[in-house]
C-alpha cells in the first residue's frame, strides 16, 4: 500500500485527485498507476484502470489472474467492472469512498451474479489514505476562495 500511496501523491502533485494503485503478482510489481483523467482528458484514466492497462500490456494478456490490486481508495463502479473483466484475484483498498465507492460504501455493488468474484478487503492504511484525500480537497477549496488577480479587472473578497 505504501507504493500505492506514493502513486497517489504523484497524482496530487499534478492536480489530480490523489488515488494510486499497484498491481502485484507472485510478489512482483506488474504495474503502478495514479489518477490522470484531467491531464489526459480521459474520464476512464482512474488509477486502477491505468495500472490494469499497463499490466495487461506488459503481460500480453487482458486477463490478469492471480494478481492483487492495491489501491488507496475504494473502487468506483467503472473500476470494479474492469477488475472483474481482468479477472484479478484480489483487491485491497485503503479508504472508503462515501460518494462513489462500489464495494462497501455508497453503491455496494453485489458481485454474486458476476462471472468472476475477486476477494476484496479494505481499511489498509485507511487513515493515511483518507487524510491524503481530505488534505487535497481542503487545499482545493481554499484556493477557490482566493480571488484571482487578472490585469485590469477588480478582485472580489
Key phrases:
37% helix, 157 residues, 19% strand, alpha/beta, 5-stranded mixed β-sheet, 5 strands, globular, disordered C terminus
Strand tally? 5
Sheet having the most strands: 5 strands, mixed
Secondary-structure element order, N to C: HEEHHEHEEH
Structural class: alpha/beta
Identify the quaternary structure here: single chain
Low-confidence stretches: 152-157
The portion of residues forming beta strands comes to 15-25%
**Average pLDDT score:** 90
What is the helix fraction of residues, given as a range? Answer: 25-40%
Distance between the termini: 42 Å
The outline comes out as: globular
In the sheet with the most strands, the strands line up as 2-1-3-4-5
Brief sketch in words of this structure:
The protein has 157 residues and is of the alpha/beta class. It is built from five helices and five strands; from the N terminus they run αββααβαββα.
